[in-house]
Amino acid sequence: MKTMFNCSTLAATFALVASLGAFGQTLYKLVDKNGKVTYSESPPKNFDGKVIRMDIDPNANTATMPKGSALREEGAAARNASADDAVRSARQKVESAKKALADARDNPGEGDVARIGNKGGGTRAQPSEDYQRRLEKLEKDVKDAEEDLQKAQRGR
Fold first, then answer.
1. Residues in contact with 80: Cβ distance below 8 Å, sequence separation at least 6, in sequence order
2. Which pLDDT tens digit goes with each residue over 31-70?
3. Count of Cβ atoms closer than 10 Å to residue 138 Cβ
4. Cα–Cα distance, 156 to 28 (Å, whole number)
């Protein structure tokens, strides 16, 4: 009988101790003479400063975070806007590269093309090596810009 009483007393004591943590917690805010703030779970001994007892009720915190879907929607909208900007920028680069290539083809500079005579009469245009290299570079710029545009469109 005495053993049963001890067990039930022990169980009740354990339940009481466990439930005390659910009711609240106490923190101590310590402010020293220099204004430095620290926090402690137990009251300090021989502290030369201001001690503020803070009783915390864990159930009183009603702050809520925005719903996950709202955060995802905001993030998705920002990513979409960024992706749209990247696509616009890539399109402008493609247009600019194509325009530069067309301009170079339509308006060769002095010394870019030499006229060479044919056997049957007349002449044909013969591009210089520098002009050919410049056209190849401009064609590569167009190809690279188109690849960047495709990447930006996939990133949407």
1. 156
2. 998 889 888 888 888 888 899 998 887 777 676 766 666 6
3. 19
4. 51
